[in-house]
Amino acid sequence: xxxxxxxxxxxxxxxxxxxxxxxxxxxxxxxxxxxxxxxxxxxxxxxxxxxxxxxxxxxxxxxxxxxxxxxxxxxxxxxxxxxxxxxxxxxxxxxxxxxxxxxxxxxxxxxxxxxxxxxxxxxxxxxxxxxxxxxxxxxxxxxxxxxxxxxxxxxxxxxxxxxxxxxxxxxxxxxxxxxxxxxxxxxxxxxxxxxxxxxxxxxxxxxxxxxxxxxxxxxxxxxxxxxxxxxxxxxxxxxxxxxxxxxxxxxxxxxxxxxxxxxxxxxxxxxxxxxxxxxxxxxxxxxxxxxxxxxxxxxxxxxxxxxxxxxxxxxxxxxxxxxxxxxxxxxxxxxxxxxxxxxxxx
Length: 346
Ligand SMILES: NC(=O)c1ccc[n+]([C@@H]2O[C@H](COP(=O)([O-])OP(=O)(O)OC[C@H]3O[C@@H](n4cnc5c(N)ncnc54)[C@H](OP(=O)(O)O)[C@@H]3O)[C@@H](O)[C@H]2O)c1
Fold this sequence. Notes:
Elements: E1 3-10, H1 14-25, H2 27-34, E2 36-45, E3 48-56, H3 58-66, E4 78-79, H4 83-89, E5 94-97, H5 109-118, E6 122-125, H6 129-143, E7 149-150, H7 161-168, E8 174-180, H8 183-193, H9 198-207, H10 216-219, H11 222-234, E9 245-248, H12 256-264, E10 267-278, E11 281-292, E12 304-311, E13 316-322, H13 327-342
Parallel strand pairs: 1-2, 1-5, 5-6, 6-7, 9-11
Antiparallel strand pairs: 2-3, 3-4, 8-10, 8-12, 10-11, 12-13
The structure holds NADP nicotinamide-adenine-dinucleotide phosphate.
């Protein structure tokens, strides 16, 4: 027997479109292995929204979006309808929120998540903004919702950092977490090590479509800090916001000359996030560090992201992933949708 899961999607950018592709390419796997059929009943982007309780065609919507259209001018769409308004109206079981991150106030994702949870609709986040601003509020609201709240895609894409930390480090005391969480800055540092200045490496990354036109979130450390805040709240059990991460220093002041000098000493620079327990609380920081080559994080190169959990009874757990493009993140969203759908209703 196949169970239908009605999905509403906010954000039709790289991740949203990749999810539409997966809804098509993985439909057979979802049906055969999980007994699930995903039906898209609403979608929103910055142009507006479209709703259809009978189901929108993911392939058609994706093609419309790729040819320059938007949800607002899709067949049956409503230009100017906001994403939270769509969530208030949509007939859905799960909201996938993959809008652009907003560090100022977490919107529109935060109001979308609030509206969904109020209506008993489960929430899957790719956008870190709502969690960074309102982790406690959203997790409390989710307890009352039918499908709950999942956000494994918000930390290192498909690397299941949140899942490992919440599910697998059972009864562990995690003394220290260190990680490299931003592949754009990591690949820029690697390019600088190969020759060229920061400016040249950044320009090349932008030409290659790796770095955003406005790369500040990545290269100034804020994307890394966002992920550290989510880990601190969700795995370490300490309420935290961005204001608790001090310092947040990016890679913009690192010179190619110093990279080469330190290389001769057997050191490599990485943008490292740290949560270290001191006097019963975790101190949080994001900054470049010069690491000896034999350290695990020194071997997290180029596009890779990685994390180390120093635990009392499960050893030094070290993980890394090499992923490119939005597909692994969309796959992590799909993982969360499937896991929420499999949970018995509370
Ligand atoms: N790309 C990755 O690999 C990756 C990995 C992990 C997490 N994430 C997170 O996932 C989210 C999506 O990433 P992305 O790469 O898909 O970003 P993106 O390509 O920039 O797409 C962002 C989407 O958000 C929509 N949007 C912006 N403002 C909106 C508003 N006020 N109301 C409704 N929709 C709005 C945009 O609409 P328009 O299309 O109309 O402009 C666009 O569809 C971000 O929060 C990002 O940080 C991404």
